[in-house]
Structure formats: C-alpha cells, structure tokens
Amino acid sequence: MALSGGVDRGSHSMDKSITLPPDEIFRNLENAKRFAIDIVAKVRSFDHSTKETDGDPLYEISVQEEITARLHFIKFENAYIETCLDFIKDHLVNTETKVIKATVDKEDEMTCLIKGCNFVLKNIPHEAFVYAKHADSEFRFQHTHPDIFPYLLINIGSGVSIVKVEAEDKFERIGGSSIGGGTFWGLGALLTKTKRFDELLQLASKGQHTNVDMLVKDIYGGAYGSLGLTGDLIASSFGKSATTDKEFSKEDMAKSLLHMISNDIGQLACLYAKLHNLTRVYFGGFFIRGHPVTMHTITYSINFFTKGEVQALFLRHEGYLGAIGAFLKGAEEDNPNQYSWGENYAGSSGLMSVSPELNPVQRARSGTFDMLEMDRLERQLVNLPLLQDPTSYIPDTVDLTEDVLAREYWLYCFEEALDGVVKRAIASQKDQPKAVERAEKFRQKYRHKLQTLRHQPFAYGSLTVRSLLDTREHCLNEFNFPDPYSKVYIESLNIFHLAWERPWLVDAYNQWIERLKGPPHKCALFFVDNKLLIRGTEVVLASNSGPALNDVTNSELQILTERIAAMDPVIHTALKEDRLALVQNGSSSPCLDLSRLDKVLATVVRERGTDLVIIEGMGRAIHTNYYAMLSCESLKLAVIKNSWLAERLGGKIFSVVFKYEVPSKAQG
C-alpha cells in the first residue's frame, strides 16, 4: 500500500512498516490542508533582524514562526491502516483540509512511479547505489549526474515493466515480461510450501543453487573454452532435479528459482539497454525492496551479460516512488518541481543494513525504510557553471564509508563535541521557554544518529564530514535551535595577517603574487565563511542562505557590508557601481557542494564572466572541494585547526593551505 498527501506547503506519504507507536507517526498529519496522504507540518524557522539601539549587538536573532514546506513519507504495515484512517477522520475530516487524495485513486501507477523516480534522482545526490555483496562496504553510492535523463527503469513487481525515461514527462514502456516477482513468489510457494515472500527470500539466502542447477562443468567436465563459458556457469536451471533421484532442500530450490528469474530479468534488461543505447539502468519494485539476495543476483546477471559495461543501480528510496509521484501529481497546481528539495536527516530513518549476518532483526520488517522527510528549499539549486566536469565532480574530500580509520575518528570527534554544542544552543536562547529541555532532546537525537552511523555508515548515502555536520544542523533545527552561535562573536583569524613560517603545508603563495602582477581578473567569486576582500576587479561575495556554525549568512553580510561601506569609500563606491555584489549560495551548511548552488548565483557568475573562484575555510576548501577541478583560476585557502586532520595531510595543527590552481587550458 502507498498513500500520499500534503497541504499548501508540504506533505506526508505512507507506504509500509513503522517501528514507532502509531500516534507518534501520525501526529504530523494534524496540520494537513491537502491530503494524498502527504501532509504539511508547521516547522519553526528563525529570521535575522537588526536593532539600531546604541549598545546593542551588531545583529540579533528574533524568533518568528513560519510555515516551512516539508514532505513526510511513512512506511507502515497494513495492520496499522485502521489506526491511520481513524486518525484522519478525527483530525482531518470536517477541518480546513480541502483535499484528500490517495494512490488508491485511479492515478496512473506508472506515471506516479516515474514522477517519484525523477524526484529522488534530482533532489537526493546519493540516491543511487551499486550493491557489492563481498566488498568492505556493501553499498557504493553514485553521485547523481547533473542531467538524470535518459535512463531505463526496470520495475519488478508481479511481472516486469521496462520503461525508457527521456524527460520529466516523457517516458515509454518499451518492454516487459510475465516472469517477475509474482513468478518467484508463486513457484516458490508451490516448491517450498512457504507463503510469505520475505521467508522465501530468507530460504534463498541460505541455499546452494549448485545442488539443484546443472552447471557447464556437469555437462562438459569443465569449462567450454571455445564458447567462453566457465565451468561454474548455470547451463540448466533445476537441471539436476530431472536426473537425480533425491529430495532437494527448500533452501536450495528457492535459491535456484531466484537465480533463474533474476538471470532472465537481467538478460532482458541488458538487451533493452543495448537496443536503446542506455547505460543508466535502475531497478525497483517489491521484488527488490532492499533485499541483499535479490540485489546480488540482479547485479551478477547484469555484470555477466554486459561484461561489466553496465552497472545495476538501485535506489535508496525505491519503496517510496509511487507515493512520492502520487503526491506530486496531486500537488501539480503548486508546481512542486519549481523548487529544489533536500533530505532532512533528522526525520529520516535512512538505509538500514540488508545483510542478515549484520542485522538479523532488520529482515523481520516488511521493508528497508521507515520514514523519509524532504524539506523544500526556497531557492532552486544548480551546478556552478565553472565546474570543469560536472559529471565527475565529487564535493567531499574523504568518503568515511570507505575510510574506516577516518570514520572512527570523526564519529568520536562529533560525539565528544556534543556537550559544547548543547551549551551553545542553550546560551543562544537562554530566555526562551524550555530551551534546556529542547537542547537535551537534541542531544539524545543526535547521539542516536551517531550511534546508528557507527553500525550503518551508509544510512544516508556516502558518510562524510559534511553529512555529519548537516545531520547535526538538521537535528538542531528540529528542536528549534537554528543558530547556536547567534550570541557568540568569533574573532576570525586571517591567514594573510599571520606570520607563520613558510613554506606552508600547501604553498602556492609565490605563484599567486606573480599572477597579481598580470592583468586584473574580470570578476572574482568568493565563497566566504566570515571574511571580506576587495581588489580592482568585480567581486561577488557568496555566503550561506541560512546559519551554520559561526559562518556569516547573506542577511548578516548585507548588514556588515552596509556598515563597512559607511566607513570605507572603496567599499561604498564598489557597492554603488555594482562592482561588489552579495549573493546567497543556497546552502545552510559549513561545507560547500558546488553542484547544489543557488540558481541566481549561477546566473550572476555566468553573466559577469567570472574568471577567479576563491574558496576559503576548512569546511569549504578542505572537507569539501579540495580536489575540485574548475575551468578558471582558483584559490583554496584554509588554516587546519584540527591536529588529526593536519597530520593526515602531512602537517601540524594550524598548518596553512594556500592552493592556487590554473586549469591546463589557461596555462597553455
């Protein structure tokens, strides 16, 4: 079952499987105005305002409740449907709710599926993954291509539908098969007398198909070299059952059946991918549902038939595609696709382990996910036009999913820092009611997230320092602490004024000085955290749209710049002549993802002919973008204020990174 809905500014969606009490899950439905079943909730946000009174700080944070768009998707077991419907009746019927809509309406199922798939691929960077059963990390996440089209979607339900998707509203069912998940379930029930789908897969995970299948070596005594067939290749599914007079175990028969159907689907998918010249092939449907045994057999089949040229891609949220699509279709009048959306880690369950040996309790659930929350970002996000190759750009310097030592250190580091964050949160709202109580709830929530990530580092895609910081920010926001540093003034260090002995850890200072002797740059884009610069070129200062740590936000930078301009004629003139522009970057993170920037900023960069990008600070220039390749000159500047990280990079604490890069074409 998949239900979905929402109000004029948000939504909830229901699928299968929850672990929290129903009242806890369904409480967010109370504010719904549109219900499909995706619902909107009221979320507190904090605006910046100024006070001109003498003696007041430069700026203050005032609390103002707003309606913020958020999509809530919940998977629950069928046993809870009456509880859900009772809640709807008690809280929504005869209220302000204007629309009640569900996927049980005659919405086109395939249209909803495609809409949902497009939505997650566009808005969740680490949505797609490759499954590698025997690797150290069973999930290998793919950074989403800037242009998600075209792709092939193999939806394996009772049968198989093969859909070619070419654009947002352009798709075609180009093929399919009657041999799918229903075939596996039906034949499996006849062979094993097992009626439950999950139990059948559990049997298959314990089985040995070679006891039932006839292999190439069973026929030829080894490999068939002239045809390129290895000895372990299946020559005939269930072939041994016709020639061997013995009983076969349920486990072995289930495994043989799974291989037979997966290989058939895999070959079919490969043929259609080759026919239509497509390399991106996504698999979904109840046959997949995050089960390791199905993902492994599908992956093996695709690798075999394409000789490794095509990868089988799976989706973190494939169980929600229909529900998401149903909501989007029901909310078309609000045009939800005009916005960008981001996964809220505080309210999302994340991807659980699918390996029975890692988490045997997990497979008792009827699905991999419990809850998913998506926040609407008020500004549309796009790539920085100056990325050398947007398709290969990876923001993060270190993937903690792969680097075990780094993962252990940073998880320990964030947990150790938790008490300090709690104290800052309370201090930022010492006059607000229940601030201490809310801060303690934040502590519990974030600590639980960290503990989950120790065991499931792949829960929200690739684990990075950026995702750990973002998760903390999301948890702070959930308990109404959007800016714990609002009452703290940080005296920033400026590396240009510090007389550290050179050479620095990364030292291109001399090359930069030589460059300054040449012609001025047309326009410099400066990603700031809390510093300003001015030279004889046009300057675009790009700062955060929302608060994160002690980084300056765009609204704060506007105030600071106006006050500086009143004292400095150079700044005053630059502002007046529009040679100094202040633009928000679309982020509320201490780090920087150049593939998700404010569309207005991208337009300014393009129109002004920007030929220099300056990225400053540990979060933006070290944790992210250290290896980013740009099509123009760039400076990456930072003081490394973490001893472990400094040693990792071959330096000491407070080592300076001054990285000046010129693209090869510009050098020539």
TrEMBL record:
The answer on whether this UniProt entry bears the keyword DNA damage reads no
Q: Which GO terms describe its cellular component?
A: cytosol; nucleus
Q: Where in the cell is it found?
A: Cytoplasm
> Its GO biological process terms?
coenzyme A biosynthetic process
Q: Which reaction does it catalyse?
A: (R)-4'-phosphopantetheine sulfonate + H2O = (R)-pantetheine sulfonate + phosphate; (R)-4'-phospho-S-sulfopantetheine + H2O = (R)-S-sulfopantetheine + phosphate; (R)-4'-phosphopantetheine + H2O = (R)-pantetheine + phosphate
Report the residue ranges that make up the Damage-control phosphatase ARMT1-like metal-binding domain in this protein: 499-651
- Which SUPFAM superfamilies does UniProt cross-reference here? Actin-like ATPase domain, AF1104-like
**Keywords of this protein's UniProt record, alphabetized?**
Acetylation, ATP-binding, Coenzyme A biosynthesis, Cytoplasm, Hydrolase, Manganese, Metal-binding, Nickel, Nitration, Nucleotide-binding, Phosphoprotein
Please name the InterPro entries in this protein's record. Answer: ARMT-1-like_metal-bd_sf, ARMT1-like_metal-bd, At2g17340_3_helix_bundle, ATPase_NBD, Type_II_PanK
Q: State the Pfam families in the record.
A: ARMT1-like_dom, Fumble
- What one GO molecular function would you report for this record? hydrolase activity
Name the cofactor(s): Ni(2+); Mn(2+)
Could you list the residue ranges that cross the membrane?
Answer: none
Top-level taxon of the source organism: Eukaryota
* Alphabetized PANTHER family for the sequence: 4'-PHOSPHOPANTETHEINE PHOSPHATASE, PANTOTHENATE KINASE
Q: Which family does it belong to?
A: In the N-terminal section; belongs to the type II pantothenate kinase family.
Self-association or partners: how does it assemble? Homodimer. Interacts with PKM.
Protein's job: Phosphatase which shows a preference for 4'-phosphopantetheine and its oxidatively damaged forms (sulfonate or S-sulfonate), providing strong indirect evidence that the phosphatase activity pre-empts damage in the coenzyme A (CoA) pathway. Hydrolyzing excess 4'-phosphopantetheine could constitute a directed overflow mechanism to prevent its oxidation to the S-sulfonate, sulfonate, or other forms. Hydrolyzing 4'-phosphopantetheine sulfonate or S-sulfonate would forestall their conversion to inactive forms of CoA and acyl carrier protein.
Please give the NCBIfam families that the UniProt record associates with this protein: panK_eukar
Q: What is this protein called?
A: 4'-phosphopantetheine phosphatase
Task: State the organism of origin.
Answer: Cyprinus carpio carpio
Q: Which lineage?
A: Eukaryota, Metazoa, Chordata, Craniata, Vertebrata
